[in-house]
Amino acid sequence: MKNINDLKSRVKEISAILFRTYPEATCSLDYDKPLDLLIATILAAQCTDNRVNIVTKELFQKYLSVYDYANANPEELEQDIKSTGFYRNKAKNIIGCCRRLIKNFNGKVPDNMEDLLSLPGVGRKTANVILGNIYNIPGIIVDTHCKRLSNRLGLTEKEDPEKIEYDLMALIPQKDWTAFSNSLVYHGRAVCDARKPKCYNCPIAYYCNFVNNKQSNIE
């Protein structure tokens, strides 16, 4: 990795531009309460947030509490969430997660990383979504957009999400962790597409290794 002070300086500039460009950037999953966001984030694995929001619109009306999920018929829940993909495993995790919430946490969604990671179907990405958006505890959310953009920008050379998380934590002020993550999602959707990035229309192109390397190859 490059000199960390140089990278911190670059990230400061990148963050300022992204925050100005996407002032509305927040979690794009729909939810009314902590349990909703937990369920939605489990469903969002290998699925778009738009699809999850379509599914949860009815799901949250059918399953109103942690007890409804914990006592759900597995086959019925599978059908309710089928269009999010990997539905059998997700249904198993949701039921197991809610049973663990009831048994160990009085039915409440925990407010710390260690307890969240003890729940079936919950990894660091899901935990950071919960901590950042429910409890205002900043976290780096390494989803597909964060992974792609942080590599293209040269902020990390890692592929493992947890290693990327720690690299970014070292570069970004803690208070901005969640906001920076949300901004990357918005920018990934609007401009920095996986297959056809709109580099010509990118406000942070000047700081992007992907753009600079592409220009060098052309020259």
Radius of gyration: 19 Å
**CATH class of the largest domain, anyone?**
Mainly Alpha
Average pLDDT works out at: 95
The CATH level-2 architecture of the largest domain is identified as Orthogonal Bundle
Task: Tell me about the largest β-sheet.
Answer: none
Structural class: mainly alpha
Q: Please report the number of helical segments.
A: 12
Low-confidence stretches: none
How much of the sequence lies in strands comes to under 5%
Q: How helix-rich are the residues, as a percent range?
A: 55-70%
Number of strands: 0
CATH topology of the largest domain: Endonuclease Iii, domain 2
Q: Can you say what the CATH homologous superfamily of the largest domain is? A: Helix-hairpin-Helix base-excision DNA repair enzymes (C-terminal)
Shape: elongated
Number of domains: 2
Q: What is the N-to-C succession of helices and strands?
A: HHHHHHHHHHHH
**CA distance, first residue to last residue:** 26 Å
